[in-house]
Amino acid sequence: MAVKLRLQRHGKKGKPFYWIVAADARSKRDGKYLEKLGSYNPNVNPAIIDVNVDGAVKWLQNGAQPTDTARAILSYKGVLLKNHLAGGVRKGALTEEEAEQKFQAWLEDKGTKVDAKKGDLAKAQADAEAKALEAEKAVNEARIAAAAPVVEEEVTEETSNEATNEEE
């Protein structure tokens, strides 16, 4: 039986939510699966990905083939790196401790990059909000300036009408 690591769509129309599953290659996209390995929510920026790393590595070592999108997600979370390091341990190129140490260092580096992206996104959003506020203030000031002469003209017309009424 050929096993694929792939995405199974859930969620409503226009708001997709995916489960990362190990399934028989012949089963339907949203059909029966062998094991749920995690979830992927692309509706937020950055996307929320939750993966059982050890379970995914187990399936990869048993011959499961990830789809292109699942491969990208697993690579992003370090599953493919951990599988690669496990292969090095089996061949004797490095010890279990060295492999775990390399994986933890990679996770820390990845975490700092994700935090930096979140910070940049928050800064960009704050800048956009400030820019929108400035534009709104400018529009409001232009409206006030456009309304002010009309009020002054009405006041001068009223005073001139009063003056003509007094003369009569």
Mind telling me the C-alpha Rg?
31 Å
Query: H/E series, N to C?
Result: EEEEHEHHH
Q: At the fourth CATH level, what is the homologous superfamily of the largest domain?
A: Ribosomal protein S16
> What would CATH call the architecture of the largest domain?
2-Layer Sandwich
What name does the CATH topology of the largest domain carry? Answer: S16 Ribosomal Protein, Chain: A
The total domain count is: 2
Query: How many angstroms separate the termini?
Result: 107 Å
- The beta-strand count equals 5
| Number of contiguous helices | 4
Q: Largest sheet, if any?
A: 5 strands, mixed
User: Which of globular, elongated, flat, extended, rod-shaped describes the shape?
Assistant: elongated
